[in-house]
Design brief:
310 residues, 5-stranded mixed beta sheet, alpha/beta
Length: 310
C-alpha cells in the first residue's frame, strides 16, 4: 500500500510541476513584450459584454453674463465589445511518466503557455492590422459603421467633416512623410468640429521599419544629407517596434497619441489564462489545460493615424 501511495503522490507532483512550468513560461513571455500592457488599458468585466460611447468634446466657454450656461455634449457613437472564450489542453500517456520523459512534458507545457501568450498578443494587434475594416473580432457593434482608420468619419453634431475627420494615409515612412502625417494629426477635430490639440508622440512600426524609425528620430544632424543641419525629429517621438505587425505587413506604420491610445483602447478581462493539471488514475492520462476569456476594442478613432503603404 505504501508503494502505491508513493506512486500516486509522484504522479500528482509531476502534474503540479508542469502547471508551474506553464505559468512561469507565460509570465516570461510577457516580460519580453506585453502588447496588452503597452497599448491597452485593462477593464475587469463582470457582464457578458461592455458598451462604450465615443469621446466628444465641449464647445468654447462663453462669456459670463451673470448666469452660468450649461454646455451640452453631442452624443457619441456606441461600440459594443464581447469577450470570447479560449481553451485547449495537452495530454500525455502513462509511458511518458514511466519512461521519465519529463523534458518532453515540460517542453509541451511551455508551448501551451507560449500559444496562450501569442493568442492574446495577436488579438491585441487586430485593431491595428485590420484598422481599415469596419468589422473587427470582439467588437459586435459599431454604430458609426466605418473602420477605425478611415477618411469618412462622421459626427452626430452636424459639424462639417470636410477637414479633420480623416486618419488614414498612404505614405512610406520618411522624414518628409512623417511631417505630412504629423500635420494631418494636428488638424484632427472633435465631434463638434473643434481642433482638439492632439499630441501624436509615438511611432509604432514593424521590425522591418525599426532601423528607418530610429534613424529618423535619433540622428543628430544631416539626416539623409551632407549639410549638417539639425534633425528636427530627434527625440520628438517614442518608437515602439512590434514584430507581430510583420506577420501582416512590413511597410505599414502608425502615428499615435499615446495618452489617447491608452484612453481609447480597452482590454476586457473576464478571465486571465488559468492553467490546470491533472492525473487521471482511470485512464493513466496526465493532462494540462488552459482557459481564458477576454475581449478588446476601441472607443474612438482620434488617437491613431495609419499609413497603409502599397
Amino acid at each position: 500500500m505504501a508503494v502505491e501511495t508513493s506512486s500516486r503522490y509522484q504522479k500528482l507532483l509531476v502534474a503540479s510541476a508542469i502547471k508551474e512550468v506553464a505559468e512561469r513560461t507565460y509570465k516570461e513571455q510577457h516580460e519580453i513584450f506585453d502588447a496588452r500592457k503597452e497599448f491597452y488599458s485593462d477593464m475587469d468585466l463582470d457582464m457578458a459584454y461592455a458598451e462604450f460611447y465615443g469621446i466628444n468634446g465641449l464647445g468654447n466657454i462663453p462669456k459670463f453674463n451673470g448666469k452660468l450656461e450649461a454646455l451640452v455634449r453631442s452624443p457619441g457613437f456606441l461600440s459594443r465589445f464581447e469577450p470570447i472564450e479560449h481553451a485547449a489542453k495537452e495530454m500525455w500517456e502513462r509511458k511518458f511518466l514511466d519512461d521519465k520523459q519529463f523534458d518532453v512534458m515540460n517542453d509541451d507545457s511551455k508551448e501551451l503557455a507560449r500559444s496562450s501568450y501569442r493568442t492574446i498578443d495577436t488579438s491585441c494587434a487586430i485593431p491595428f492590422v485590420y484598422a481599415t475594416s469596419a468589422a473587427l473580432e470582439y467588437m459586435t457593434y459599431n454604430e458609426e459603421g466605418v473602420a477605425l482608420v478611415s477618411s469618412s468619419h462622421t459626427t452626430k453634431s452636424g459639424a462639417s467633416t470636410t477637414t479633420g475627420f480623416s486618419n488614414t494615409a498612404a505614405l512610406a515612412l520618411t522624414p518628409a512623410n512623417l511631417a505630412t502625417v504629423r500635420l494631418q494629426g494636428a488638424n484632427i477635430k472633435d465631434a463638434n468640429g473643434y481642433r482638439i490639440g492632439t499630441n501624436f508622440d509615438t511611432l509604432i512600426v514593424p521590425n522591418a521599419l525599426a532601423q528607418t524609425a530610429f534613424e529618423i528620430t535619433g540622428t543628430d544632424k544631416g539626416l539623409y544629407s551632407g549639410e549638417g543641419t539639425t534633425n528636427y525629429w530627434k527625440g520628438k517621438y517614442k518608437v515602439i517596434v512590434w514584430n507581430r505587425l510583420d506577420d501582416y505587413d512590413t511597410n505599414d506604420w502608425y502615428l499615435v497619441d499615446f495618452s489617447m491610445m491608452k484612453q481609447n483602447l480597452k482590454y476586457l478581462k473576464k478571465f486571465d489564462p488559468e492553467f490546470e493539471s491533472n492525473h487521471d488514475f482511470e485512464t493513466k492520462i496526465t493532462s494540462l489545460s488552459v482557459y481564458f476569456r477576454f475581449g478588446l476594442g476601441y472607443k474612438d478613432w482620434r488617437w491613431v493615424i495609419k499609413s497603409t503603404v502599397s
